[in-house]
Amino acid sequence: MEKYQINIAKDFSDTLGGRFKKLGPSSGEEFYEEILEKKFLLAKDKKEKLHVYLDGAKGYGSSFLDESFGKLAREYGVDIVLETIVFHTENFKRNVKYIQEMIWDINND
Amino acid sequence: MKNNIILLPKKFKFNADQNHDAISLISSIVPPFEDKIYVDFSKLDDIEKGDLIVLYALVEKIKAQNSLTRFYFNNPRDMSNEVKKKVNEPIFNKVISENFTVDKKFTRGLNSSELNLKICPKIIDRVVSELNEIHFPEYYSIFNELLTELVANSVEHGSHASQVGWWITTKIINESLIEYAFVDMGGGIIQSHKNAGLPDNYVYSGDSKIVLDSMFGVLISSTKFKNRGQGLQQLKYAVVNDVISNFVLITNTVTLRYKNNEFVATKNEDFKGTYYSWTIDLNNYKKWKSIK
């Protein structure tokens, strides 16, 4: 059983915003502060995985992804984030690839 | 603009191949703005919503600089029938966009706090959902992402500095295609970069290089943060992968189109803002499914 999980559409919002809270609701900044960082730290401290479910949302803008998943990696280091987070999606595989390659800068060679 | 008269040319079309007259008019309208401005439609054949919003966005910018400005139209009998149907003098004098203006069909039922947001995800969702009208089999999430980024770019770099909002309008054509126009008169992409300070290697390059390098990720965001500036790259991805079609970008002195699988930049007078136009139909959806 997955002890730590986030279903973004159900736990946060299915219509996501931009980067910063000051620009509008459901921003990457809000998601990071309210949900992502807290759950990541819980999972990390217990050496467990954090399962992140992406399906059900209307879309994931690059600013949202950078201010949430990007910030997480900038704050705690890509290696530990990679060890901890597991993405689950049928519809947003491209976005996961974007996070990994463009935001976390993982070299797939 | 001469003697406070905005004389619209015969053809006032921004996404046409020949958009020189339209851009030239916009570039000629510079401060200081008087309390009375006359808009002469007598030479204009017709005007589309996507071009009318550029005028509205300009009116908004003028009012931001002189709130007392009132607009007066020429006599309706001197306008073509097509123009008469579409332009409305009271609306010109009421135009004030708090943060954005969209067709009323996208704002129905929203409360005032939602309408006061800079980025309203519900409105973006409604614009995307309109694709149901042309029988899209599923929600076009990539378009949701693109539109969110265009709006974000506008509010962060364009609108806020100039106290103007962003504008979008859509037109369904033959129940099979939707044409979009998006504009903000917040200064323009090139000007944003120049204001922020360009790297030395751009000192002698033309403005086209600034736009193209922004889209291709060579020139980082005008915020100078390396993790920023992905919005235009997302736009580039959408254009080259046929997620959207008939793409036109006008910003400052550059018009950029995508033709025969390459970006073609042409020079123009300073538009002093940013305008995008594109279309979406089922072929775009099919292409997206094949690359998803």
Question: How would you describe the overall organization of this protein?
Answer:
The complex is a heterodimer of chains A (109) and B (292). By secondary structure, chain A is mainly alpha-helical. Chain A has one domain. Helix content of chain A is 51%, strand content 11%. Chain A has 5 helices and 3 strands, in the order E-H-H-E-H-H-E-H. Chain A has helices at residues 8-12, 28-45, 62-76, 78-84, 93-103; strands at 4-7, 50-53, 85-88. In chain A, strands 1-2-3 form a 3-stranded parallel β-sheet. In chain A, helix 3 (62-76) packs across helix 4 (78-84). Chain A starts with a strand and ends in a 6-residue tail after the last helix. The model of chain A has no long low-confidence stretch (mean pLDDT 94). With 292 residues, chain B is of the alpha/beta class. In chain B, 38% of the residues lie in helices and 20% in strands. Chain B is built from 11 helices and 10 strands. In chain B, strands 4-5-6-10-7-8-9 form a 7-stranded mixed β-sheet. In chain B, helix 6 (121-129) crosses helix 7 (141-162). The model of chain B has no long low-confidence stretch (mean pLDDT 88). The A-B interface holds A 13, 15-19, 22-27, 57-64, 66, 70, 74, 91-95, 102-103 and B 117-122, 124-125, 128, 139, 141-145, 148-149, 151-152, 155-156, 227-228, 230-231, 233-234, 292.
| Topology order of chain A in helix (H) and strand (E) letters | EHHEHHEH
Number of strands of chain A: 3
**Oligomeric state as shown:** heterodimer
Give, in order, the helices and strands of chain B. Answer: EHEHEHHEHHHEEHHHEEEEH
Taken from the alpha-carbon principal axes, the silhouette of chain B is globular
Number of domains of chain A: 1
Q: Which range does the strand content of chain B fall in?
A: 15-25%
Helix/strand-derived category of chain B reads alpha/beta
Query: Sheet with the most strands of chain A?
Result: 3 strands, parallel
Classify the helix fraction of chain B into a percent range. 25-40%
What would you report as the Rg of chain A, rounded to the nearest angstrom? 13 Å
Q: Any idea what the radius of gyration of chain B is?
A: 19 Å
Largest interface: A-B, 30 and 28 residues
Beta-strand residue fraction of chain A:
5-15%
Quick check: average pLDDT of chain A? 94
How does the overall form of chain A come out from the CA principal axes?
A: globular
- What is the CA–CA distance across the termini of chain A? 33 Å
Low-pLDDT parts of chain B are: none
Helix segment count of chain B?
11
Structural class of chain A: mainly alpha
Give helix % range of chain A: 40-55%
